[in-house]
Amino acid sequence: MTPAHGVTLAEIYAARKRIAGQVTRTPLVRSESLSSRFEAEVYLKLETQQPTGAFKLRGATNMIAALIERHGREALAQGVTTASTGNHGRAVAYAAGRLGVPATICLSTLVPANKVAAIEALGAEVRRVSRSQDEAFLEVERLVEEAGMTAIPPFDDPLIAAGQGTIGLELLEDRPELDRVIVGLSGGGLLGGIGAALKGIRPEIQVTGVSLSRGAAMWESLQAGRPVAVDEVESLADSLGGGIGLDNRCTFALVREVMDDHYAVSEKAIAHAMVDVLAHEKMLVEGAATVGLAALDEHRIDIRGQTVALILSGNGVDLETFDRARAM
Known about the structure:
By secondary structure, the chain is an alpha/beta fold. The protein has 13 helices and ten strands. Helices cover 45% and strands 14% of the residues. The chain has a six-stranded mixed β-sheet with strand order 1-2-10-7-8-9. Strands 5-4-3-6 form a four-stranded parallel β-sheet, sandwiched between helices. The longest helix is centred in the middle third of the chain and has 17 residues, at 158-174. It is globular and about 55 Å long.
């Protein structure tokens, strides 16, 4: 029986077949420094090595490919669309280009020119709307209703979550002895998808979520027992911000089912983790990619003797943001 959230192990295996050749099977590398520090076997899943620099490519590719598979390429003849200033927008642009589908990315006029150019370089049309990202989302709705385009949501769809869940399959293939996976928690597509894969194969694996200490929409919603709105706050881990949608139909139920425990981390802990990863792992990554390490440090989580994977989810950080982290 298919669960209400629609994400099954079978769908995750189907997603892996669809995205093969379009998405990188990323390495899982042992961290000597973290393994020594925490007296554990600590591994880093390098989603930073995706062509677009982040895990979002998996979900976007799976959804577009599945729509072509199920409805034919002509169903997407008018193109796909989304509103995103970061990893998801780049993922949709890249995936659509590889699969031969037109893409329109809606952005506010406040989005920096370099981000606009990066998306355009992937072959997508950029539509700049007003000075608000909310207006950009309204433009997506208009393009769906009036132009017949298909929206590719950033997280709240079973096909998106199943695509992200392919990370879980790779983790278990590389390290079947895993005891715990620590994942950043925002809209829930990444944690939910990985959790569904892990629990579907080895239910005893612990899935740990990490959110911001303020503005954590999914965690606040889980505490309330229903999706709630929260005020978005500025953060070094900016891609963990934003709401989950009051009409959330997939990821709220999915995260509630698969997440075993949760930690909230401070900006100071995220800053320390960003600098730590550069100093010891020689990788410059975004704040959201380091929250697993931030949680281990700030909450002194006891993982001694365990085999643990941290998801380095993306590398979308500019030097100005990193300098802020280093100053903190």
